[in-house]
Amino acid sequence: MFVEQTQHLTGALSQAVQHLLAQVAAVAAQHQLPVWLVGGVVRDLLLGLPIDRDLDLAVEGDAIALAGQLLQLSGAHLVASHPPFGTATLQLPHPDDDGMLTLDLARTRVETYAHVGALPTVAPASMQADLARRDFSINAMACRLQAARTAAGDWALQPATLLDPFNGRADLQASVLQVLHKRSFADDPTRILRGVRLAARLGLRFANKSAVLLQQALQDGMLGAVSPERLRTELYLALSEPAPERVLEQADRLDLTPHLLAGVRWSDVLAARCLRVRTEPDLLVACLDRSEHTLALLYAGLITYDLPAQERRWLVQHYRLANDCASLFEDIIRVQGYREQLAQPGLANSTLDAILRPVNSVALGVVHYAESQSVGTTIAHYLGELRQLNPILDGHALQQLGVAPGPQLGALLRGLRAARLDGLVVSRTDEETWVSEQVHANNSTLPEQA
Ligand code: ATP
Ligand code: MG
User: Fold this and answer.
1) Selection from 263, 198, 28, 3 nearest residue 127 by Cα
2) In the chain, what are the domains?
3) What one-character DSSP code corresponds to residue 158?
4) Whose CA is nearest to atom 1 of ligand 1?
5) Section 273-296 average pLDDT
6) Are 166 and 140 in contact (CB under 8 A)?
7) Protein residues placing their CB within 5 Å of the ion ligand 2
8) Cα separation of 281 and 260, whole Å?
9) Strand order of the sheet with strand 162-163?
10) pLDDT tens across 304-328, in order?
11) Residue 1 has pLDDT above 70, yes or no
């Protein structure tokens, strides 16, 4: 859906959020600070998309001081402020639910780049000039927030026109991404990745001129000027998209992937594996936490699943990936080494356990979604039913049966668990019998005392 009526864009927000923004506008007006809704949120309002919990506000003036004044709003607290950039982040209880609403306030500014890939130096500027430093025309729109008193004496948002100096609205309607000037990708090559992400999420394509500039930037090696850490942040955002494989597809079309993830390539198979995460969520629901981070890890494992181990390790080193991602890759490599065994029917549960017990659940999730139906079913069976299975008797109970603390006790507990996994013991009595038989057998193999 494309919103034609731009006179009251904020009218698409819930009544409660509108009321909150009206209060923000009223406080800003008391201090003669023009305040605007800006960037992605304006774009998403025009697209008629639901607005998430992050609202970006631009302030023509001291945004940090305004954040301080907004602390008077009920439940508001300051999360962060960065004086060099003139930005502050506030959180308030979300008026529509139990969650929080984040307001990112930024002083309107212009940016200059000392060299390709550098972080910008900033200076205060007007709203209009601030829009000119942005990545794409569809992200370079703003909507002024102004409040008026209602008859009931409360604050209400006034209808506001769109500030759209680069025709972002028309580009949005035409589904194109357009940079604002020729040097845009050179100023900040991470915009290439931002664009690919937006293109995949919103079904956009780069406008012809921008596509040429993008290819030029790639040929000139601009991405090489960006630190691996900044690229890692962008890659993580791509993995956090609703359908990361579509971002990869876009990146492949633009020949971007070899610059970022050497050896990775979009394919039907890869896309189908990623899609299964969303169409077959049972394993996720039952065995993994469904946090955004876990999902990002799952997709990271799936997208790199067919890479040779060495290349995966190179990615870990190059991007200094966090330990959980590094060990995810190692776990996947381990399980891949047992592929054939895992595909065999009738594998004893205890053997399965010996192979899979050291492996983290997320890695097992990756293998589940990547492998054939038979391996996938085995993994789901293991994660859902076997992994958490434990004997009735614990170390304490074994000691009461006369087993001395020490290595023998540990070995007995492991053996008892294997017996339980394979169905050799069921009841507590079965377990006690099993233990005494083992102890007896062990003792009788001990050399006679002289
Ligand atoms: P999303 O829906 O993913 O949050 P967004 O466009 O809101 O998309 P943010 O990272 O939240 O992205 O940034 C907010 C706004 O800041 C963007 O809409 C854009 O105007 C501007 N912006 C962000 N990153 C850049 C950049 N690298 N270069 C220029 N402008 C940027
Ligand atoms: Mg945003």
Assistant:
1) 28
2) 6-174 (3.30.460.10), 267-386 (no CATH), 395-441 (no CATH)
3) P
4) 40
5) 89
6) yes
7) 40
8) 29
9) 77-82, 87-93, 100-107, 54-59, 35-38, 142-144, 162-163
10) 999 999 999 999 999 999 999 999 9
11) no
